[in-house]
Design a protein that fits this description.
Length: 470
């Protein structure tokens, strides 16, 4: 039994990180072939990608996927801690699962993901949710098959969470959700410690994967027919800094572009680490997509300082200017937090001014949520929730208007779209994304699925475009 420890999670050491190769224990292959699993995933792409590994591990054990919880022998919640509502959703789901468990004592219930790394969450599970079968942290997903094997024999609460990150595990199997686009982790963890953010505690210190492992994964995906990779990390621009080698994100991006895969994306970028070399690589390689997600968080220098973001509004604007000069068709998206402790109306208006000046393609906006263990947890926060909601609505109004106008600009243009499959809303249509990451619902032949095709944009909405293959 290893339970999370906030003080340990906070610590950073200079110890080098080993890379180990995962090997599936062949004794466990197929042992659950008459059983079903249901996996629910919350949170970011990192979690989605972890879920692809979790699925593959379960399926190697023989488990088949069940889309419903009733009917499953194993339910796993791959959780997110970023804001209170993600946390509440997972506990709400546990309430529903409790009822299922009451009529099926053998049901195995597991908590994985970021909430598993939280000391307060695990304490709550140990006190009030003793019927949960296991809690497995983000650093040891590879232990899932053994954990489940033991639970099949003795279904008693098992907690294996390490607050000090361990090795980088290479070679985990993966059942990818998409046949044409793949996530590729380039690094784990984060050392930025923005004062509101729980990720440095739940995901540990920054650990970059070896460049050979990343490039080989991309080549392998390309050979399997994948058209697009998204290089994933909490702060991809800092790639390599922990490896003490003279090889940075711009070098990696260039090497990944050189594999010749049709499309390369990356996320998330911290404005602080965005180098000129990186901008050049994006500008000079047609297969590096002209879309950057560049979280700004606030337009007030005072708030940015309290958030520990280490850039000013003017520095951010200067970076965007440079990006737009070198990458003319750039699409820019961001994240913004409103209602950070001490944010005054004046500070908020600075955020509005910034949003109007930058004119984002899209922004994800959030109300500040207190996370236990982070510095912002103890900051004085006097603004009412009602006022924070009002600010959020006002901000969203400007964000949505800009998004709408940006999309309007596309009408009549011809763009390249990677067709992924049928449109969710209208099965007679296809769907895919432009190079600038705009969702397009497309009229055309289904033989185009999996291909990058020319599409003429015929109409627009705030969140999507319509078009036809030409
Ligand atoms: N409260 C609100 N939003 C948060 N984010 C991160 N932590 C918090 C928090 N405590 C937002 C940031 C980040 C995005 C992934 O989530 O905007 O960029
Ligand atoms: Fe992703 Fe952060 Fe949520 Fe973890 S807490 S799942 S890293 S968004």
């Amino acid at each position: 039994m290893h339970t999370p420890d906030l003080n340990l999670a906070r610590k950073r050491t200079n110890n080098s990180v080993e890379t180990i190769n995962f090997c599936f224990n062949s004794d466990l292959r197929g042992i659950a072939k008459d059983k079903k699993y249901c996996l629910k995933t919350y949170g970011c792409q990192m979690n989605e990608h972890d879920s692809e590994n979790i699925k593959a591990l379960l399926e190697e054990m023989g488990f088949k996927e069940s889309s419903t919880m009733t009917g499953a022998d194993l339910i796993i919640l791959n959780t997110c801690s970023i804001r209170e509502n993600a946390h509440n959703k997972a506990f709400g789901m546990l309430g529903r699962i409790k009822k299922i468990k009451e009529s099926n004592k053998d049901l195995i219930v597991g908590i994985m993901g970021c909430m598993a790394q939280e000391e307060v969450v695990v304490n709550e599970i140990m006190n009030k949710y003793k019927w949960v079968s296991f809690v497995l942290g983000t650093h040891n997903i590879n232990e899932l098959p053994n954990t489940i094997f033991n639970l099949l024999k003795n279904n008693k609460l098992t907690i294996e969470v390490y607050s000090k990150e361990g090795e980088i595990v290479e070679g985990l199997p993966s059942v990818r959700n998409n046949k044409y686009k793949a996530f590729v982790n380039i690094m784990y963890g984060c050392d930025k410690f923005c004062t509101y953010c729980i990720v440095p505690y739940t995901r540990g210190k920054q650990r970059s994967r070896k460049k050979e492992d990343i490039i080989n994964e991309v080549i392998d995906l390309k050979n399997k027919g994948y058209k697009e990779v998204t290089l994933l990390g909490q702060n991809v621009n800092a790639y390599g800094k922990d490896l003490n080698i003279n090889y940075t994100m711009s070098d990696l991006l260039q090497d990944v572009a050189n594999t010749g895969i049709d499309r390369v994306r990356f996320m998330t970028s911290h404005p602080w680490d965005f180098t000129d070399e990186m901008i050049d690589v994006i500008a000079n390689n047609p297969n590096v997509m002209p879309h950057i997600h560049l979280p700004v968080q606030s337009g007030s220098d005072k708030v940015l300082k309290m958030m520990g973001r280490r850039y000013t509004k003017d520095e951010y604007i200067a970076l965007v200017k440079k990006l737009r000069e070198k990458i003319p068709n750039l699409s820019l998206t961001t994240d913004i937090i409103v209602g950070f402790p001490t944010e005054t109306l004046e500070d908020f208006n600075m955020t509005l001014d910034l949003v109007k000046e930058i004119n984002y393609d899209l922004a994800y906006t959030f109300i500040f949520s207190k996370r236990v263990g982070t510095p912002a947890y103890n900051m004085k926060d006097e603004t009412s929730l009602e006022e924070k909601n009002r600010r959020l609505q006002e901000l969203n109004y400007y964000i949505n208007s800009a998004a709408n106008l940006k999309n309007k600009d596309y009408v009549g243009k011809k763009v390249k779209v990677l067709i992924e499959g049928f449109s969710e809303k209208d099965k007679s249509k296809l769907m895919g994304y432009t190079e600038t990451n705009k969702l397009v619902n497309v009229t055309g032949d289904k033989d185009n699925i999996g291909k990058i095709v020319d599409v003429k944009i015929t109409d627009y909405k705030t969140w999507s475009l319509d078009g036809k293959i030409v």
